[in-house]
Design goal:
Elements (H helix, E strand, L loop, with lengths): L12 H9 L4 H12 L6 H13 L2 H9 L7 H4 L6 E6 L7 H7 L7 E6 L6 H4 L1 H13 L2
Parallel strand pairs: 1-2
């Protein structure tokens, strides 16, 4: 579900700094939701949930992704995946666009297929839960 590529793609110090500040307070989380994480926005109750969940994490946890996770290369390990894999990506995902996943993830996992979810960004389980459920259901049924 909206995975990151297994190796850094286009990560700059500026991007790391921006991501490290994205969850500092309610204002920055709301800005992240609107500018980077969603395509159509979220209803008030889900916006509140994302803000609360985002602010609940400790400082070290919030900094781990931009300064460690985003730059870590785990590509050697993903080639060992031998089970069927369904990669779901939002058509308007600005964080990890489908084209980046098609170019930098799928070639490394021979058992993977990519499905692009319509009219959604990075938070597709919150934006289009029916699409997510339908695609996962169809994938599991064909196993």
């Amino acid at each position: 579900m909206a995975p990151a590529p297994p190796a850094p793609v286009g990560v700059t110090e500026q991007a790391q700094e921006a991501v490290s500040r994205a969850y500092d307070n309610e204002e920055t989380v709301l800005r992240s939701i609107d500018l980077m994480l969603t395509h159509g926005g979220l209803p008030p109750e889900l916006r509140r949930q994302v803000v609360e969940d985002s602010l609940r994490g400790g400082g070290q946890a919030r900094l781990a992704w931009p300064f460690q996770g985003m730059v870590q290369d785990v590509s050697a390990g993903v080639g060992a995946i031998e089970v069927p894999v369904l990669v779901l990506a939002g058509s308007h995902d600005k964080v990890d666009p489908p084209t980046v996943l098609a170019d930098h993830l799928l070639p490394l996992i021979p058992t993977a297929s990519l499905t692009v979810l319509k009219d959604t960004g990075h938070l597709s389980p919150l934006e289009v839960p029916d699409q997510v459920a339908a695609h996962i259901g169809a994938f599991v049924a064909q196993l």
